[in-house]
Design a protein that fits this description.
single chain; alpha+beta; Naphthalene 1,2-dioxygenase Alpha Subunit, Chain A, domain 1; 2 domains; seven-stranded antiparallel sheet; 12 helices; 17 strands; 26% strand; binds FE2/S2 (inorganic) cluster; binds fe (ii) ion
Length: 372
């Protein structure tokens, strides 16, 4: 399965190339290899710093390679820890929320949000045991423009190097001024690559989103770093973050540059974080693979602080939520149909149109890493 001779057809230039063979989407063995080679040392999306602005806030981040806690301590510092107790390894928390300390549900060892072990009942008299020798184990935590990521591998490439020129391209969106106002969750019965491939082409928009978004015009983007993007053109009066025909959009983000005023970047930070930069808002799609045929997705909706402060914000934001919920449900349903098609016994690969270059690129990026 991992012999590069079996993938020569995917390696060809786009118009000669075949798609990835079906087993890449259906075989758990292939998924396990992706786990080791793409995800174990990869950057996993957490959320926004502004979601952790209050001391005591905690986000639980479940990834295919581990669970982490990202929290804000009493002095306002954000930390990332492995979500496990130092006594006998119990998972500390299942859900995001607020707390004053992290107390283990098993024997009540308790940790400050700065990670220090504060009490360990019954440990008095144990030889060579000091509380300060057993803090929570940290994970790498890095961010750009308020977007937080963790990495379980201490030697991983820095996030800034991973994403290359993405922060520069999006600089005029004033990323640090964004606030996340809502999360929407989905579980999709499809391999993660179907979802990311779909995020990287606009070929499907006229059919899958026929009655919502409609067809979209897109251009490819030259990128430096492990990210890619489709740039979707729109007129300069309204972003595409609400459905066509909706006229109640918010004003554009102050200070957008020329290009940012004319379109929307649908980016994918490899392997599977999508952040969409539009004229009036930014939204993310955080895909978390669970197994070879199941993926969890969280959408996060971010607006500039001035927009959120508008007295009628809550009423006016409704069409945005509607667009994200409806269009995402359409993408999810088509990915599930693709998964079912692959499980129906399909044994041969397909072909690409000239507009699916980013899909071809992603597939080859995966092969570069998983093949022997
Ligand atoms: S495992 Fe956490 S206190 Fe025992
Ligand atoms: Fe779509």
């Amino acid at each position: 399965m991992f012999d590069s001779n079996n993938y020569q057809e995917v390696r060809k230039p786009l118009l000669d190339a075949q798609t990835l063979p079906p087993h890449c989407y259906t075989e758990q063995v292939f998924f396990e290899k992706e786990k080791q080679r793409l995800f174990a040392g990869g950057w996993h999306f957490v959320g926004r710093e502004d979601e952790l602005a209050e001391p005591g806030s905690v986000l639980v981040v479940e990834t295919m390679v581990g669970s982490a806690l990202v929290c804000c301590d009493q002095s306002g510092h954000i930390h990332g820890y492995i979500n496990a107790c130092r006594h006998r390894g119990t998972k500390l928390r299942e859900k995001s929320g607020h707390c004053r300390q992290l107390t283990c549900p098993y024997h009540a060892w308790s940790y400050g949000l700065d990670g220090q072990l504060r009490s360990a009942p019954g440990m008095a008299g144990v030889n060579n045991f000091e509380l300060e020798d057993y803090p929570l184990k940290s994970v790498r935590l890095e961010s750009f423009g308020g977007f937080l990521f963790i990495n379980f591998n201490i030697d991983a490439l820095a996030l800034a190097e991973w994403i290359g020129d993405l922060p520069d391209v999006m600089r005029s969106h004033q990323l640090s001024d964004l606030r996340c106002v809502k999360r929407i969750n989905f579980t999709i019965e499809a391999n993660w690559k179907f979802l990311i491939e779909n995020a990287l082409e606009a070929y499907h928009t006229g059919t899958v989103h026929r009655s919502t978004l409609g067809a979209q015009d897109s251009e490819s983007v030259d990128t430096r770093g492990h990210w890619d993007a489709l740039y979707v053109l729109s007129d300069e009066t309204k972003s595409i973050a609400t459905l066509p025909g909706e006229n109640q959009g918010f004003g554009f983000i102050e200070g957008l540059n020329e290009k940012a005023r004319r379109g929307t970047w649908f980016t994918v930070i490899y392997p599977c974080t999508q952040i969409v930069f539009s004229q009036d808002c930014v939204w993310w799609l955080d895909f978390k693979p669970v197994n070879v045929s199941r993926t969890k997705l969280t959408i996060g909706a971010c607006f500039p602080s001035d927009t959120i402060a508008l007295p009628d914000f809550h009423g006016r934001v409704a069409p945005y939520y509607e667009r994200w919920t409806e269009a995402t449900a359409e993408d999810n349903a088509i990915a599930e149909a693709q998964q079912r098609g692959h499980q129906a016994g399909l044994r041969s690969a397909g072909r690409f149109t000239g507009t699916e270059h980013c899909v071809h690129q992603l597939d080859n990026w995966v092969l570069d890493r998983v093949l022997d």
